[in-house]
Specification:
Order of helices and strands: HHHHHHEEHEEHHEEH
Structural class: mainly alpha
Largest sheet: 2 strands, antiparallel
Oligomer: single chain
Distance between the termini: 43 Å
Low-confidence stretches: 1-5, 166-292, 311-319
Shape: elongated
Number of strands: 6
Length: 319
Amino acid sequence: MGRSACCEKVGLKKGPWTPEEDQKLLAYIQQHGHGSWRALPAKAGLRRCGKSCRLRWTNYLRPDIKRGKFSLQEEQTIIQLHALLGNRWSAIASHLPKRTDNEIKNYWNTHLKKRLSKMGIDPATHKRKTDALSPRQLKDATTLSHLAQWESARLEAEARFVRESKVLHHLPPPPTVAPLHLDVQTVKYNPISGAIFATTTTSAAAPNCSLESPISSIHPLSAIHQYDAANPMNFPAAAFSMDAAVNTNAVLPDFVEGLTDILLENMNDQELNSSGGVVDGVPGCDVGEICSGEFEENTSYWNNVLNLVNCSPFGSPVF
DNA sequence: AAATCACTCAACCGCCCATAT
DNA sequence: AATATGGGCGGTTGAGTGATT
């Protein structure tokens, strides 16, 4: 099945948009809405491909776009979300109001990627470039990887929900789950299936998240997909997994943090090492070497990643 | 002052997915 | 079921611009 071109290229203008073209596009959309992008250029009097119009609108002309320098908070959010989602720019953008995926992608490629590299972190994996994991570390990293996959899927589902909510105004508010705590009592990991199970009970409200998704990391993806708009609280019982003993009665965010600690503890065993030198203005570290300060940075780096995903994108304190 | 290099970012391209026919 | 189409996404490009030699 051949894919036809999105529009006839003959006679169509390419390259940078002129102020006149911007004005035409803006005026048309403000008056009529964009409707079919394919049909828009002719109606708006533009010699452009519909796709080009859509791009210009979504990345530049849309009124709800924030331009200019990224704040520290935004940078941190991008890095953390990238650690979980990878190059899923639209999903990342859905967590950064008023920023476009294109802008975030550019910012990542030109600034953040380099910065992480300088810090000795592989921007693709968010792991130390020199990591040589022991079997135990590998096991824990695998566990963390499972979690990351869960969170990745969940965040994507949430991003989808945000997108759909923008279109379907009649939908009820997003699933602002009432404060709910899950006391993790037992946690088991099936190494064959990779499944995660936990016995949990619900109790009081979780700290640190003003609007949390306490189901984070513990509900199967199907639970997200089966989100019942009429009854947002109707989530199925929780299940979780890990191959290690975990403090019982941990409130979820602490529990997740505990996972990080396990991984980082192992990193610490092998890599903790102090030395002289300077990394990006951090005294006492040489590039590519681990020092205690850097270890703390790492700890907080991953803790931030995991804490972040335990806050819903809907009005979470991150933004 | 001119040439070269490095960087940024708007825009394009090709692919994929969902939906319509 | 097969095909066509529109919209969206991520990767890449290249013009513009500032910094350096």
